[in-house]
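#data-curation
PF: Archiving a pair of folding outputs for the training set. Convention for this channel: one message per protein, sequence first, structure tokens after, nothing in between. First:
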Amino acid sequence: MSKYDARSIATKILNQVIWQRRSLTDCLSTQLVNLKDSRERALAQELCYGVLRWLVRLEAVLQQLLHKKIKDKDIHVLLLIGLYQLIYLRTPPYAAIAATVEVTRILNKPKTTGLVNAILRNFQRKSDKILAIVDNKIDTKFSHPSWILKRLQTDWPEQWEAIAIANNIHPPMILRVNTKLVSREKYIDDLKEIDIAADITPYTNYGITLTQPVDVRKLPNFTGKDVCVSVQDGAAQLAAEFLDVPTDGRVLDACAAPGGKTAHLLECYKMEHLLALDNQQNRLDLLQDTLQRLNLTAKIKQADACQPDNWWDGKLFDRILLDVPCSASGVIRRHPDIKHLRKSTDIVNLVAQQALLLEKLWPLLAVGGKLLYVTCSVFAEENYLQIKHFLAKQPDAHSVKLITDCGQAQIYGRQILPGEFDGFYYACLSKH
């Protein structure tokens, strides 16, 4: 076994996420390059996503197997990886245990070899009994922090179980086609020629859903001169359609990075002006990369959207896309580290930030213009309740009905719950 194998790299990544509270996406991008074999990279990624997806349940299982706390964080994480393989993967148990035990030697911790072997074999013998015990509690059964489940139960009393289950399922891979360059039907035919199965995505005019995820490098025209496709969930694709930009309109994308919705607007509409803002340069770099790959251009500026005096030229916008910072509770299935990194106390600050963005940007909208408020959250406090409070304070604003069969209508706006698409909330406000 080489110095860098899937399980040892996964141990390092999960250590950074669980103990150092770093983003899984960031850790994967810096660590997977150490694995040259594509199968090893795929396994490492599966282990990282899987352990974080089922972390609450796996921790509960591990506690049933321990007589005392394991102080070594590497070994603690390695045991979670071993348990994930035994419970959720099709790897033969003997192979999963042997490969996991071998990592103790790769980590230069041979004294723990016997301990890891004994704990995993003990679980193998008692798995049915242990899983029955831990699943008596709903937070371990659904593998969610209790505070998230309580919010889901309050906001979605009939759907909370379905949301929690959906959060633990691998999401589909959905593409967005630039239909000015190629039709969806033609692109599906192009995919079939290289044995990639796909279907039209419902509710959008641009989406294609792959039967199985693939490496983007295998997609036709994902890069190069004739690039015409991006990866974007179907719910996120609705933003451009809902915004309904007039010809030669002035548009503000207030929280634009990493640029998926910015690019979609540029693909859909002929605009006089599109200003894309973000307050972090590293995120603007991602936005620039997105536009550059798609051969698109926009005016990009690093600025705090809440301080328009520092960046606004005084000309009103016809449309404002306000994709606000949020809990990301609707995209947990794509980013399972959210369940570990996000805290209940974060919501108050996020709601305050969202309200401030609405307050500061509303004066920049022209009469007759529209502001599209977007979150990837399923929490009412960030969504329709936020809009309700804003409308109560803003007499020249009113809610516009969104025409789609996707999701479900709220008192204000429309909520899409995790399932066929990611969880998103949209509310369209017009000024009169």
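PF: Second:
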Amino acid sequence: MTQFAIEIGAFLLIILVTALIAHISKTLISTALPSSSSYLAARIQRYVFLIIWAVGIILAINQVGVSTDILFLLTALAAIGFFLSAYPVLQNFVSRSFLSLQYRVGDTLSIEGTSGKVIEITDLNTVLLDGEGNLVSVPNVMFIKSIWTKFHPSGYEITMPVVIRKDIDTVAFETELLESIVDLKKYFKKPAQVVTSKSDDRTTELSLILNLKYPEKKSLVITEINEKVETLKVEFAHKAEEMKKEEKLNEIKDIGK
């Protein structure tokens, strides 16, 4: 009878300690997580609460002489399953604490071929608004694992060299070039500019200065502009040849007078 009373006392004591630990775990989790993470905190509290009680009940039952090997195994498997399923969530949550000083809402970021303005930062992901108006959700842990770029408000500037023949009208060519890329202005943060870099007896080198919104559009923009430049070169070269012919004809006419 005395042994039975001891076992019952141990059983009740373990249940009491388990209840106390479960209560303390809720308080600790609520304190550790910010108020903005109430949903995440509630889920973690629930799982931890269940695991603590499962272990406590198993230990209590074991005190009265009942085999609990299978219950321990099932509880261990459940705990492992919980941590495996929660691991990605915890990764993203912890990553946010490291990234909080790196970028904020309103910044423009580029990661893994995706760029956009940050419109929301949650415990699990960072939401970007890309150039086409699409919302892109990027897990926070990606900013720890991958290389990403934060853009300066002035944009991403590149300079394209454009070499034309010396006999081509430079001013007219610059005007036509800027007009030909008007349809690409959705990719520009600032209007494109053309300046003359250098000139020699045969060629004139121009610099087309572009300020892009997103760097991943660089290849697309350069390809399209190169096509337009080549077309303009052919057109202006033809015009230059026609002007030379007209000048020679005028010279011949002047000589014949």
